[in-house]
Design goal:
Blueprint lengths: L6 H9 L5 H8 L14 E6 L6 H17 L5 E6 L4 H13 L4 E4 L8 H9 L4 E4 L9 E5 L1 H16 L7 E6 L5 H14 L5 E6 L5 H15 L4 E6 L2 H13 L15 H9 L5 E3 L2 H16 L10 E3 L7 E6 L2 E3 L5 H5 L6 H4 L5 H6 L4
Parallel strand pairs: 1-2, 1-3, 3-4, 4-5, 5-11, 6-7, 6-8
Antiparallel strand pairs: 9-12, 10-11
This protein binds beta-D-glucopyranose.
Beta-D-glucopyranose binds next to loops.
């Protein structure tokens, strides 16, 4: 009865009391019984939004491929496309996959609204759609992501902890993600929920396309407007942007860096955390998210229900009660690098502790 769901998803599902037989059924199909209409020769279209953020091609893609192979005993096929942050390209990629007769689509939308028409076309062609990480609009069949408002709260809480009783002794800068990404709105809402009233927000930006270089430009503008000595902390929605922000702070001559948040536990982000340049990231265990997507995709392609895999229902602006699996994320700081990304096998100590970071690694006992 291995559902292939990772620890975090199982914990969430189990605590909700809903890890039912159907989930086991979906996995068991691959172990002998002919699996529904299509058995194991399932063609899955996988569409990811961009490749400037490391997670997509380093974690999400290989994890989904591995899980599809496991459930279909190597007979499933994954057709992959990356939209490189272009919503029009992604719409064409969906159309190409419909023409290519995939049996199911897993879509992480560049722009959650702009993808709705393509989702409708897939539906009309009888192809179910799993929204991956970002809640695509249109008639999707299932969704998997993290608890994104909680991710924002984890970031906000960590920033407050870092500021301590100096939280109002200056200004913070808030660098949110792209407005086309519904997650960015949730991260922002979660962060504001914790920070409002407790800090002074000197400048706040929605970063076009989540691009690190745009975060760099905005941070440089904030430094000019507020003064480099007045900025006591930076809320950055992810690690890629944190990189751009920290470069801007250094370029402005800030030697004592203020706490900067992040998300994704990117290797470069983890290294900055070890070195004390970035205060925190949010470690989101990608395996349970990817495994849930693969399981739901295979079940839907076989014409089976996903009710046994999910742990809640989520409403999108266009579609009510979407069967969903949401996974929790955790704060990653200097104090828990080992118990999170190292112990989970995301990075080895050798990968993190290269020559440049060896001394910092030793300071925190990472060896
Ligand atoms: C994802 C983040 C990622 C960001 C930029 C969000 O939707 O949840 O993990 O950093 O997009 O691609």
């Amino acid at each position: 009865m291995n559902t292939h769901l990772g620890r975090a998803a199982v914990a969430v599902a189990a605590s909700a009391g809903i890890l039912s037989l159907a989930a086991c059924g979906a996995a068991d199909e691959g172990d002998g019984r002919p699996g529904g209409a299509r058995g194991e020769a399932i063609k899955v279209g996988l569409l990811l939004p961009e490749n400037q953020t490391a997670r997509y091609e380093k974690f999400d893609k290989p994890l989904i491929e591995k899980e599809i192979a496991a459930i279909t005993r190597g007979k499933g096929e994954v057709v992959y496309a990356n939209a490189k942050q272009d919503a029009t390209t992604q719409n064409s990629q969906v159309e190409a996959m419909i023409a290519n007769k995939v049996h199911v689509l897993i879509i992480d939308a560049v722009d959650a609204k702009a993808i709705a028409g393509a989702v409708r076309k897939a539906k009309d062609a009888g192809i179910p759609v799993v929204a991956y990480d970002r809640l695509a609009e249109g008639p999707i069949d299932a969704y998997t992501s993290f608890d994104n408002e909680d991710v924002g709260k984890v970031q906000g809480k960590a920033l407050l902890e870092a500021l301590g009783d100096k939280a109002k002794d200056g200004q913070i800068v808030m660098m949110n993600g792209s407005v086309t990404d519904p997650n960015a709105k949730l991260f922002k809402a979660g962060a504001h929920f914790l920070l409002d009233g407790k800090v002074n927000v000197g400048k706040e930006y929605d970063t076009v396309d989540w691009k690190p270089e745009n975060a760099h430009t905005n941070m440089a503008a904030a430094l000019t407007a507020l003064g480099k000595n007045k900025i006591i902390g930076v809320y950055s929605a992810n690690d890629g942007m944190a990189g751009g922000i920290i470069t801007a702070l250094k370029a402005a001559g800030v030697s004592n860096l203020p706490p900067v948040t992040g998300q994704d536990a990117e290797l470069a982000g983890v290294q900055r955390i070890v070195a004390g340049e970035q205060y925190m990231s949010v470690y989101k265990p990608y395996a349970p998210e990817a495994e849930a997507a693969a399981e739901m995709a295979v079940a839907l392609a076989r014409g089976e229900k996903v009710s046994g895999i999910i742990n809640q229902m989520v409403d999108s602006p266009t579609t009510k009660a979407v069967p969903s699996v949401l996974v929790p994320g955790v704060a990653l700081t200097r104090s828990n690098v080992k118990s999170t990304v190292v112990d989970d096998g995301i990075y080895t100590v050798e990968e993190i502790c290269t020559d440049k970071y060896r001394a910092a690694c030793e300071e925190i006992g990472l060896k």
